[in-house]
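Morning. Coffee machine broken again, so started the prediction first thing and wrote up yesterday's gels while waiting. Chain of 361 residues, entered below exactly as on the submission form.
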Amino acid sequence: MAYGAVAQYAAIHAQVRSLSSTLLTPGTWTMLCEASNFPALLDMLKETIYGPYLKEVEDSLLTPRRTIYQANKHLADAFNTVVTSIPAAARALITQLYRRYEVDNLKALIRGVETGLGWDRVRYFLFPLESLTILPAEKILEAESVGTAVERLHDTPYYDTLTHAMQRYTAEQSLFPLEVALDLAYWRELWQDVNQLSYTDRVWAQQVVGMLLDVTNLMWAIRYRVNHKLSEEEIVNYTLPVGYQVHDEDIRAIAAGADIAQTVARIYPDLEDISPLLKDAQSGLPQVEVVLQRCVVEACRNAFIGYPFHIGIPIAYLLLIELEIQDLTVLVEAKASQVSPDEFRSFLLIGCEGGNKHLGA
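Came back before lunch.
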């Protein structure tokens, strides 16, 4: 790696190391899990890095959904910090990683159009990209049909992808083809960006982003088979043939009816046995996803160990915030619904096992 790039990574490495100290600690997670109710949880969160974002809104307006919307502003700010500090050669990947939230926003907007929901009903289900988004969100929601909404995306990178999928949408009257097309296009481009990096960055990005891609692709294949009962051909068409540890033959095996637990064990031999979770496959899939997502957490933590001058560390930091907010979403909804810790703890990725324990290595 050239000296200039090392110098730039040295700066962002120090910055990210400092910022990672704001990730919730094991002690904080313990207190949050033991909060007596939702208002008590909010009071505790206001004493963390999420406090300034929550305090922007009156307590009476902090519904569970609005709470997570405000928490996501912290993630948005973290991305802004990283993307402006990262070496230029790696900026496209960080930007594309950030676009994942825009793709999710676009899917939510199209659902809003189909169901006739207005801006006030949809806005807090969106990720707060604010000025960084290229989506004309309110204009999309004003469309009288999904087809009109797609036409309003004419000047965005999403237009061609959605236009090609509109024929199936029209024939099936289902948003599924549109959403799958957006997801597949997004992940293909992200993986291309990973593989265009210089050697050291590419190796680390493959490990961190690749683990996220693999888990996403695996869960697509499993859900398509278990929940949606899709055919082998459909599953193959609606998944990715590329990945880091998950390869085309693995996806094809699941699509063809291979034992899911055995296939996962072959890919991840050190992973806990998921076969008990699949005794009732449909009800067990959320827990299977948690088990697989913990592999992403571990990949992020491992990025902080050893040689520091690479893109893996800032990516890992950003993903750890995302996964932390995913845990907070579980916690917020559980406290609002008065669910006991014994019922929700197994669905936590980070909060269940000790916060950012590896980041000081």
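The two ends are 23 Å apart (CA to CA). Going to sketch it on the whiteboard this afternoon.
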